Amino acid sequence: MAARRHRKRVAPSGRSHRLLISLVLVWALGLSFVGIVVGFVIARKSTTREQRRATVQRLAEEEKRRDADAATTRPDRIESELPFQMPTLQPERVTANPDVFLAANGRSPIPQPDEAFEGPIRMEDVEITTAHVPEPVVDKWVSWEDAGKYAGREITVKGRVVETRNTGEVCFLNFVTPWQGTFYVIIFNDAFDSWDEPPEEVFRDRTILVAGTVKRYKDRPQIKVRDARQIVIVDESLERGAEGASAE
Q1: How confident is the model over 178-227, as pLDDT tens digits?
Q2: Which of 39, 53, 99, 113 is the most exposed place for a label (fewest CB within 10 A)?
Q3: CA-based end-to-end distance of the chain
Q4: Closest residue by Cα to residue 244 from 109, 147, 162, 178
Q5: CB contact at 8 A, 109 and 126
Q6: Tens of pLDDT along 155-174?
Q7: Any domain includes 151
Q8: CA torsion, points 26, 27, 29, 34, in degrees to nearest 10?
Q9: What does 12-37 look like in DSSP terms, one character per residue?
Q10: Does 75 have pLDDT greater than 60?
């Protein structure tokens, strides 16, 4: 009985010993893991610090090189290496009056390709030149029936408009029906606002004088009107009985 009681007292002591060993092992493993993590964090911070130091040093060296290059570069060399910037044309200034353009010493003020740029043009060297607008000659005109004989020449043509047609872009004035193959006048919408009424109404059944260069389009002679000064209505009461003179 005494031996049995002795064995029962030893058994709990052995389990406690094993539990203690297990706790020591767990503590040792945990301590090792913490040590590894701390070492990794320290190593990473050290690497990051070195990288930042290297980046700062590289930027400082690049800044010194740029300062040295700027100090040794001549201003005239810098200007010569800059690409020439062509001036920007403002659309409203160009289209407001397409017949007017600038000319200095017989050339455009804008440098052309491969042309040396000698600096801005002085205002006193600039003159305004207006494009030629043909105007009717009252005492020297050609009948619309003979206008086709003067292809390529600038003349004044007289005739009575019997048919008009407006497409919105252009207005056609015909002097006979059917009009196929005959002379006609074509008025572009640039000039539509020059009259109080649409041109097809202004010139229908009226005798007109129109000036311009006679050209052929699809085997029909024509004069193009882009300016209201090219065409006038004839006062038939004053012109009655007058004869047209042939253009020389």
Answers
A1: 999 999 999 999 999 999 999 999 999 999 999 999 999 988 999 999 99
A2: 113
A3: 160
A4: 147
A5: yes
A6: 999 999 999 999 999 999 99
A7: yes
A8: 140
A9: HHHHHHHHHHHHHHHHHHHHHHHHHH
A10: no
Assess if residue 158 is contained within a domain.
Answer: yes
> Domains in the chain: how many in total?
3
Structure letter (DSSP) for residue 84: P
Domain of 108? 86-131
Structure tokens at 18: 């094993």
The enclosing H or E element of 100 equals strand 100-103
Instruction: Indicate the helix (H) or strand (E) that contains 201.
Output: helix 199-203
Site of tokens 């060297």? 125
Residues 43 and 113 in one domain: no
Copy the structure tokens of residue 70: 């700027």
**pTM (2 decimals)?**
0.46
User: Is the same domain home to 163 and 233?
Assistant: yes
Classify residue 245: in a domain, yes or no. no
Cβ burial of 147 (10 Å; 0-12, 13-18, 19+) is buried
Alpha-carbon radius of gyration of the chain: 49
The Cα–Cα gap between 206 and 236 comes to 9
The DSSP call for residue 104 is B
